[in-house]
UniProtKB/TrEMBL annotation:
Its cofactor is FAD. Transmembrane segments: none annotated. Residues 140-230 form the Acyl-CoA oxidase/dehydrogenase middle domain. It comes from Streptomyces colonosanans. Keywords: FAD, Flavoprotein, Oxidoreductase, Transit peptide. One of its GO terms (molecular function) is glutaryl-CoA dehydrogenase activity. This is Acyl-CoA dehydrogenase. One of its GO terms (biological process) is fatty-acyl-CoA biosynthetic process.
Length: 396
């Protein structure tokens, strides 16, 4: 009778052995992004958050470009051509530092660059993508409007032809990177349907006032876009798509990154709670030795690593060309909702210290309130899944 194989030791940081699913290149990319975030973001992010600004955004973008994190899942034009799983791992590590940093990368790569890569002309790709991949040009994505968020089909921004030019008028709201962008991908209603435009932000009539007084995503640039008779040439329109399917396709790609990123924020809070529970003493021993605290940690670990497994599964499906938008909604709905609950539970483990910026918990918790809303609210993703399950449309 053969001897039983020797089991690997239990790893509290990877209790399910998920790292076994990763190859050497996956691990190298993850470790590169994790090291960058540890060196450049974590020492500064509490101060940035408290001040409500991201003062080094242009330099951070160039650094992210140098490590291949911008548009990393795209191919050609200076992009890394990474797998969906590798991109997801990067999103997890970035959001473990701060949701604002992951949002910078997501909007740059999965929205602005993805729109140009997927729907742009060859000239537009050559004009914008290499500089965006390098972080020399920052992009933003203008879809949401002051009165139209969950219902983008009702957008009012309008583009009309004037000779060989287009003239755009309208407003966009809650636009990440807006006031520092060199190009804005703007979606507008036209006589032929909804079209996308690559709008250089130095055009007369374009302005992007920054939105202040935020209590979430404070280490992030968030702006309004104002288009007042902004004239662009005919070659600014993205020729590859007409209709709402264009921006929705971009949003699905970006939501996939959120599925991973939310687990990064959750992991940061979970790790803070475990470390605190092992060192904080009450009633003569560490609080991690009490049953109620261990129950909290166990439940947090279960939801965290279930969420990471779900993200891995969706990533493998995307790499195989089999990921459906409904499945992305499944992941975004579950992982952001569970990440918020993990953060809230971690706050209870830390007690009063949980609200201090000395620890990452409250910062992640407030950031995730924005992540829960943007790129599809809980209710919208519930209705996407409800329609897929029943075949009945409950949106209207």
């Amino acid at each position: 009778m053969s001897a039983s194989p020797t089991l690997p030791p239990f790893d509290p940081a990877d209790p399910l052995g998920i790292d076994d699913l990763l190859d050497a290149e996956d691990l190298a990319i993850r470790d590169t992004v994790r090291t960058w975030a540890a060196q450049r973001v974590l020492p500064n992010v509490a101060e940035w958050y408290e001040r409500g600004e991201l003062p080094e955004i242009r330099e951070l973008a160039r650094e992210l470009g140098r490590i291949g994190a911008l548009g990393m899942s795209l191919s050609g034009y200076g992009c890394a051509g990474a797998s969906a799983v590798q991109y997801g791992l990067a999103c997890l590590e970035l959001e473990a530092a701060d949701s604002g940093i992951r949002s910078l990368v997501s909007v740059q790569g999965s929205l602005a660059m993805y729109a140009i890569h997927r729907f742009g002309s060859e000239e537009q790709k050559q004009q914008w993508l290499p500089r965006m991949a390098a972080g020399d040009v920052i992009g933003c994505f203008g879809l949401t409007e002051p009165d139209h968020g969950s219902d983008p089909g009702s957008l009012r921004t309008y583009a009309k032809r004037d000779g060989s030019d287009w003239v755009l008028n309208g407003r966009k709201m809650w636009i990440t990177n807006g006031s520092v962008a060199g190009v804005a991908v703007v979606w507008a209603r036209t006589d032929e349907g909804i079209r996308g435009f690559a709008v250089p932000t130095d055009r007369p009539g374009f302005s992007a006032p920054e939105i202040r007084h935020k209590w979430s995503l404070r280490a992030s640039v968030t702006s309004e876009l104002v288009l007042d008779d902004v004239r662009v040439p005919s070659d600014a329109v993205l020729p590859g798509v007409v209709g709402l399917k264009g921006p929705l396709n971009c949003l699905s790609h970006a939501r996939y990154g959120i599925v991973w990123g939310a687990m990064g924020a959750a992991r940061s809070c979970f790790e803070a709670a475990v470390e605190y529970a092992k060192t904080r003493e009450q009633f003569g021993k560490p609080i991690g030795g009490f049953q109620l605290t261990q129950a909290k940690l166990a439940d947090m670990a279960v939801e965290l690593h279930k969420g990471i497994l779900l993200a891995h599964h969706l990533g493998r499906r995307m790499d195989a060309g089999r990921l459906r938008p409904e499945q992305v909604s499944f992941g975004k709905l579950n992982n952001v909702r569970e990440a918020i609950e993990i953060c809230r539970t971690a706050r209870t483990v830390l007690g009063a210290n949980g609200i201090s910026l000395e620890y990452p918990v409250m910062r992640h918790a407030t950031n995730l309130e924005s992540v829960l809303t943007y790129e599809g609210t809980v209710e919208m993703h519930q209705l996407v899944l409800g329609k897929a399950l029943t075949g009945l449309d409950a949106f209207r």
